[in-house]
Amino acid sequence: MDETTEPHFPFDVWVGHIIPFLKARDVLALACVNRIFYGFVRALPRHSISTGCVHDSSLENCFNLVEFQAKHPFLQMKINLMHCSLRTPDISAIGSVHTLTLDLCRGITDVRALGSVHTLTLDLCRGITDVRALGSVHTLTLDCCNGITDVSALGSVHTLTLWNCSGITDVSALGSVHTLKLCSCYAITDVSALGSVHTLKLWYCNGITDVSALSSVHTLTLSSCSGIKNVSALGSVHTLKLWYCNGITDVSALGTVHTVTLRSCYAITDASALGNLHSQ
User: Fold this and answer.
1) Cα separation of the two ends of the chain
2) Is the pLDDT of residue 91 over 90?
């Protein structure tokens, strides 16, 4: 069908008889290649998509999508809802999927139904304030969710990423997390409780100045943390990555670290004490 050609199917036929039988990924594919179909999807006043045997669903920029129904709770299903209005507060139908991404879904405020999701990403979902129900999620990413201030219930999460979550100040309950990444969380100043974390990444956390409690971390990355100047206590770390940490000048105490990576740490002039050194 040419983009300028008027469709021959009545609007209600498209909506009532064709869209429900399409897999969600096919809806997106058609919307991308056919402007008329894209117009249909965007024009639907209250459009819902029911997934049957869909393994991997990606619905992006579906501004009028207000409901998402999973007919069968396939545990391996992957769903990516990006820029979807989802004005209905009920997301319980997708609470059993394996992998779920909610990106810019500002209408979602209640995530209590998502506690069984294996891998969950909440990106720019600023209406969410309570994540206490997500303590059993295996891999959880919270990106630019500034309404979240309390992460004390997330201590059992295996892999946790907090990115640009300016409302979070206290991470003392996260000492049992296996892999923890804190990026641009400027309000966090105390990481003394994180010494038992296996893999810890601190990126752009300029409020952190003291890392002496992190000597037992297996793999530690300090990137662009301008407040950190003293790393003398980190000699027992197995793998240490120092990236763009221009406040650090002395690495003489790191000779016992198994692997050290220095990247753009211009203030360090003498690395002769380092054995297995990787310089970038």
Assistant:
1) 53
2) no
